[in-house]
Design brief:
This protein is an alpha+beta fold. Helix content is about 30%, strand content about 20%. It folds into three domains: about 50-150, Immunoglobulin-like; about 180-320, Rossmann fold (3-Layer(aba) Sandwich); about 325-375, no CATH class.
């Protein structure tokens, strides 16, 4: 072998060993399988859960892992209305977030299993739980499960349709709203079936609307549009609607007096919210338009819509039709939510507003309703 060949062979062996050592060194730091594409974390939130109102459930993230060997932070995110803050103690958690003062939004913990007491909701309600995990490099993964509320009279693993006790058939010949709406009560919520958002996101939007109606003090029964088994579907109920008339007829099937319908505008980045009586769908009680919902969803996910949705629902429920069912103070909060939330509402102006609202809106002759049970106002 020539001297030049021997020299090249030595250099090859030297740098080959150095490169191998470098690969093992970086691989040890960045994760065991970094160079094989398996370094990213994998979140596993577990199977969907069926439970009763007020029951304790266990969220199991133990099958999640990160490839770099770092300690996992389990970031659980709850749909609005699922977890009441006062019913759970997460003082030892890394961090928590809330929706206002009543409901928990998220919990971060090093524990693989999280014990959670869920709030009361109607049977058939499905609310989302998201698990996010992140490694020290910054890679992130998430997984989702649904918590479905079952009937207390049925086994927890039995799907129920959650229909109200009394069901009336839609009557297209109904002409007298004053005479025929006395037996109707509650609010029916449904969005247009235009496939602009997936079914889970539809459930989240419905849940946010439902939670806001109750959070601002109304004690209405809330009926959500749900997937009903064909053999339990009441006559006249339609799974998919693209008109307010169709949704109004569904509301009458559920014996609901009011309807809150919503839909994404065709070819525009707008979300329309409307409220009306089920027997008089052509006359809107009120309407609100949310500008830029797709932009918010692209930036922050479906929960990016939450502040705008809550504000829109407060505006709709501040209409004169609902005044008798909510206190003056709650109406004041609803009408001035943005000012109050930033601490800019002057005390004297607030007192003057209360006086004018009471004198000029005819509230002096109205008896003040009792505060709804279970809804203290902070």
């Amino acid at each position: 072998m020539f001297k030049g060949d021997m020299k090249m062979n030595k250099l090859y062996k030297k740098y080959s060993i150095s490169l191998t050592a470098l690969i093992f060194f970086v691989n040890g730091i960045m994760g065991q399988d970094f160079f094989f594409g398996n370094n990213k974390p994998s979140a596993d939130a577990g199977k969907d859960i069926k439970a009763l109102s007020g029951e304790t459930i266990f969220l199991d993230g133990s099958r999640s892992f990160v490839g770099d060997g770092s300690k996992i932070k389990y970031h659980w995110i709850f749909a609005p209305g699922l977890v009441i803050k006062s019913e759970n103690d997460f003082s030892s958690a890394i961090s928590i977030e809330t929706y206002g003062s009543k409901y928990l939004k998220s919990v971060q913990s090093h524990k693989q299993v999280l014990k959670v007491t869920i709030s009361d909701n109607d049977p058939g309600t499905k609310l989302e739980v998201v698990l996010k995990i992140k490694d020290r490099i910054g890679f992130e993964d998430r997984d989702t499960l649904l918590v479905e509320y079952s009937s207390p009279k049925a086994p927890a693993d039995t799907l129920v349709s959650a229909l109200p006790p009394t069901i009336i058939e839609p009557s297209p010949n109904t002409t007298d709203p004053i005479e025929n709406n006395t037996s109707l009560s509650g609010v029916f919520i449904q969005g247009f079936a235009d496939n602009k958002v997936n079914k889970v996101d539809v459930q989240i939007i419905n849940s946010i609307i439902m939670d806001q109606i109750k959070s601002i003090g109304f004690d209405y029964t809330i009926f959500l549009a749900r997937d009903i088994r064909p053999n339990n579907k009441p006559k006249g109920y339609k799974d998919e609607c693209n008109t307010d008339l169709c949704i109004a007829q569904n509301a009458m099937v559920f014996n609901a007096r009011y309807v809150l319908s919503w839909n994404f505008a065709q070819a525009e980045d707008k979300l329309s919210l409307r409220v009306f009586e089920s027997i008089d769908h052509g006359n809107l009680i009120d309407e609100d338009i949310i500008i830029g919902p797709y932009t918010q969803m692209n930036e922050s996910g479906i929960y990016g819509l939450e502040p705008a949705l809550r504000s829109g629902v407060s505006k709709l429920m501040g209409a004169n039709n609902f005044k008798k069912d909510i206190s003056i103070v709650d109406r004041l909060l609803m009408k001035n939510e943005s000012l109050i939330s930033y601490g800019k509402y002057p005390l004297m102006l607030g007192a003057a507003y209360l006086f004018i609202d009471k004198v000029f809106t005819g509230d002096a002759s109205e008896p003040e309703p009792e505060m709804p049970p279970g809804f203290p106002h902070d």
